[in-house]
Design a protein that fits this description.
globular; 7-stranded mixed β-sheet; Rossmann fold; two-stranded antiparallel ribbon; alpha/beta; single chain
Length: about 250
């Protein structure tokens, strides 16, 4: 559902052959796959989900099946770890660093991103763009109202996985912590659409944002509250449609 965001960033930065992309929190590798389809060499790092990294490897490494022409081959690498785990003094510097996991989802995520960027930016060439993504203003993101379910029953377990509203300067603060220089920004419409309410509940639960709520109140209760929160966004044909706006910040390695 963030494909419009990835496309907007790659188009603006003219990502293509010769680009060397380091994707932080690469997840299932879709953003990297899109960069590779433009001819870029890509490296992804993540520590959150072995299952998602397995999907990223299936998509990007030689022998992967699918309809995309990745043109990646040996120029794709997926690592379960941090930027330090891909450091290679003999390899060319990265020309683009991306952090597409949206800031403004979890308590403390801006601070955590700043630390991750501090590890990654020494691997990039001077002046290289570093792209950070985040949720737009809550009033422009229908999904924000649904994500509030993650804060209700889980208050006793509030921590790094708890949802919180996006703040206006989240991305700028993360860039500042990493010593990066802001150099432009943009907003992109990324609606969330699902075939039905059950699909929407499963999709939202898969983000991990509701894990603490499920632990505190049980899956049945969270499913019930999510279904109720999704009701305003259900169309007459049963589909669920939530318009959202995401923003991105382009910063530069000093």
């Amino acid at each position: 559902m963030l494909v419009p965001l990835y496309e907007a960033v790659y188009e603006r930065l003219e990502v293509g052959p010769g680009a060397r992309v380091l994707g932080l929190g690469c997840g299932s590798g879709l953003a990297l796959l899109m960069a590779a389809s433009r001819g870029a060499a890509v490296t992804g790092v993540d520590t959150a989900s072995p299952e998602r990294l397995a999907l990223a490897r299936e998509r990007l490494l030689p022998g992967a099946s699918g309809t995309w022409d990745t043109r990646a081959g040996a120029d794709a690498r997926i690592v379960d770890g941090s930027p330090r785990d891909v450091e290679d003094p003999h390899a060319p510097a990265y020309t683009l660093v991306t952090a597409f996991e949206p800031v403004g989802c979890r308590a403390g995520d801006a601070e955590g991103l700043g630390e991750l960027l501090a590890e990654a930016t020494p691997l990039a060439e001077r002046g290289a763009p570093v792209v950070l993504a985040g949720w737009g203003p809550p009033e422009r993101c229908a999904t924000s109202a649904v994500l509030r379910v993650a804060t209700g029953p889980a208050d006793p377990l509030r921590g790094a996985r708890s949802w919180r509203p996006a703040a206006r300067d989240d991305l700028e603060e993360a860039a500042r912590q990493a010593g990066l220089r802001p150099d432009g920004s943009g907003r992109v419409a990324c609606p969330f659409g699902y075939a039905d309410t059950d699909s929407a509940v499963r999709g939202l639960l898969s983000t991990g944002l509701f894990d603490a709520a499920v632990a505190a109140a049980g899956r049945e209760q969270v499913d019930k509250e999510l279904t109720e929160a999704l009701h305003p966004y259900q169309r007459p044909d049963g589909t669920v449609w939530m318009p959202n706006v995401f923003r991105y910040l382009i910063a530069r390695v000093p």
